[in-house]
Amino acid sequence: MKTISALFILIREEYMLPCFSKQILGVDCPGCGMQRAVVFLMKGEFVEAFKMYPAIYPIVLLLGFLATDHFLKIRYANKISVFLMITSVFMILANFILKLI
Fold first, then answer.
1. Tens digit of each residue's pLDDT (9 = 90 or more) over 14-52
2. Which UniProt keywords apply (predicted)?
3. Cα angle 89, 91, 92; round to 5
């Protein structure tokens, strides 16, 4: 029951953290949209999550892989995690640059 309550609070927009970079400077930060994309994922709206923050999927894959590797000790985990990290950073930077244009 506590888990359901916590998920409900996360989905509610009035509980979302504001972007201080956008409020102060008027420019989206590299993480702008991630919180809303997570909410879309939780609601099952996968296309909307990608539209909101394209880097959400590489980040989710990275976190899932790191959690799996923690328990199962996957072979070549370092190479795979480095690839996923580079992909995530590239997607974050590409998203940030496209928002600036």
1. 667 777 777 888 878 888 888 889 989 988 999 999 999
2. Membrane, Transmembrane, Transmembrane helix
3. 65
Distance of CA 65 to the CA centre of its chain: 14
Determine contact, residues 84/11, Cβ cutoff 8 Å. no
**Angle, to 10 degrees, between the axis of helix 77-100 and the axis of helix 56-72?**
160
Q: Which residues contact 4 (CB under 8 A, 6 or more apart)?
A: none
Q: Rounded to 10 degrees, what is the CA torsion of 83, 84, 85, 89? A: 100
As for how many domains the chain has, the answer is 1
User: Which tens digit of pLDDT belongs to each residue from 77-95?
Assistant: 899 999 999 999 999 999 9
